[in-house]
Specification:
Blueprint (H helix, E strand, L loop, with lengths): L7 H13 L8 H9 L9 E5 L11 E5 L9 E5 L2 E4 L1 H8 L5 H11 L4 E2 L5 E2 L9 H10 L6 H8 L9 H11 L13 E7 L12 E8 L4 E6 L7 H16 L3 E6 H4 L2 H15 L11 H13 L1
Parallel strand pairs: 1-2, 9-10
Antiparallel strand pairs: 3-4, 5-6, 7-8, 8-9
Helix pairs in contact: 3-5, 4-6, 4-7, 5-6, 7-11, 10-11
Length: 306
């Protein structure tokens, strides 16, 4: 189910009031301080504030005001308090299209549709049960928008966004393998991320697990790419569990390819992995002038690091 459509009423009311006659709503230092100490304690600096008129701009420390006098589309805001609307993930994506490089915008969209969070210090958190939005919701929102800088790029980028990534490395792998050649990817069929495969529950081959989630999965070819992270896959017990997982997936007619951090962070290793996946898919990687093995490796490392 696409989330955040519940914000339509609030967004419509906000847009409507501004469309009639934008009222003075200049943010004051006391209000910003109260938000900083309360519901927005998690926010990084500067705090970006959307105001309806240039007269509402206030040069407060650690804040940045953005003027938008025209109404915004339905689904632009999520109400988190009686006097506070937060920009929705869809609005964030549309706004960032004006300043981000195209591939970085695709990455941002994938992160907004992911099962992890990125902290200000660069670390990832894995507490999400559902992603904040979906590629379908992004495309629907952008289809309702008009008069925003970068909107054409945002619509193109949304078509390349992957859903349900479980980690920053899964995001980087999905993008580098599936992006078109002209953007630096390998141009392979785009995988499904964290796809569920039900295990056998009865008979002589009954399995301990009810199902498996594959990091990257190509259903037509029944090929799975599993990222073996240094953090999660250590120790005899973990190694045994991983071996059991691979054996079970093989019994389910799923071809499993494993990628390690050392492998993918090296340009040549990444290239070998991509060709291995291509062979398993019965696909062919065409050469693209300007994107050498080294250049693709640098692009991949930038996707992981940024």
């Amino acid at each position: 189910m696409d989330r955040l459509d519940i914000a339509c009423a609030e967004a419509g009311a906000f847009a409507g009031s501004r469309a009639e006659a934008p009222r003075a709503c200049k943010p004051f230092a006391g209000e910003v301080r109260r938000l900083r100490e309360g519901v927005l304690a998690f926010a990084s600096e500067p705090l970006h504030l959307l105001v309806p008129h240039k007269n509402a701009v206030n040069s407060l420390k650690s804040t940045r005001c953005h003027v938008r006098s025209a109404p915004l589309s339905c689904g632009s805001f999520v109400r988190v308090g009686d006097d506070l609307l937060l920009g929705s993930p869809e609005l964030c994506f549309a706004q960032m299209a004006a300043s981000l490089p195209f591939v970085s915008l695709v990455k941002l969209g994938t992160e907004l549709c992911s099962l992890y969070t990125l902290q200000p210090n660069g670390s990832a958190g894995y507490e999400r049960v559902l992603p904040p939005t979906t590629p379908r919701a992004l495309e629907a929102y952008l289809g309702r928008c008009a008069g925003m800088r970068g909107l054409a790029d945002a619509r193109k980028a949304a078509c390349l966004v992957a859903a349900s990534s479980g980690s920053p490395m899964e995001t980087a792998l999905a993008l580098i393998l599936g992006l078109p050649l002209r953007l630096g990817g390998y141009g392979l069929p785009r995988p499904i991320l964290n796809h569920r495969i039900d295990a056998l529950q009865s008979g002589p081959n009954a399995m301990e697990r009810r199902y498996y989630l594959c990091d990257l999965y190509w259903p037509e070819a029944r090929v799975a790419l599993e990222y073996d992270s240094d953090l999660e896959h250590t120790g005899p017990s973990r190694i045994a569990n991983d071996a059991r997982r691979r054996n079970d997936l093989t019994s389910l007619s799923v071809t499993t390819i494993t990628a390690t951090r050392d492998q993918v962070m090296d340009g040549r290793g990444l290239d070998r992995l991509a060709h291995q996946v291509a062979r398993a898919l019965g696909a062919r990687i065409r050469s693209k002038r300007g994107w050498s093995t080294r250049a693709r490796g640098e692009l991949f490392r930038s996707l992981v690091a940024s």
